[in-house]
Amino acid sequence: MFDINLILNKYPFVKKDDLVPILQDVQEQQGYLSEDAIKKIGEYIGIATSKIYGLATFYSYFRFVPKGKYHIRICEGTTCHINKSKLLITELYKKLKIRDKETTKNNLFSLEITECMGACSMGPVMSINDKYYTNLTLDSFNEIIDSYINN
After folding, report:
1. Taking 80 as the threshold, does the pLDDT of residue 1 lie above it?
2. Which of 1, 67, 79, 92 is the most exposed place for a label (fewest CB within 10 A)?
3. Domain range holding 32?
4. CA dist., res. 23 & res. 53, Å (int)
5. Smallest Cα–Cα separation from 71: which of 106, 40, 107, 37?
């Protein structure tokens, strides 16, 4: 059970410089930054929630919706892009009806488009819950996604 007070208590002499580490801790524990958590952080630090949202939206790391059971990351870095990762992303949009940083209504899938996954020579690259799939074709991609849908 997530308790934001356990995180905030780690910062007894809180400063505005502690905002990013607090947000990171909350996301690590809760899986995302909820509206309620942002309000409590703002009250604790003495910062308007609009400023917290402004900072959090600047960094692509932070999420505002929970991850799905299967969190899909697709690389859109230069090499993966050249190797047609955009085609895979478009196929996923059609298949799951979600966009970057969204979660399906049944909370089964979430999607994150990323700039680099460190496997440039094997692109396009995708991971699902930290299991990596490389050298993807449209056929292999569909086969993998379908196996998770039917699982």
Report:
1. no
2. 1
3. 4-58
4. 10
5. 107
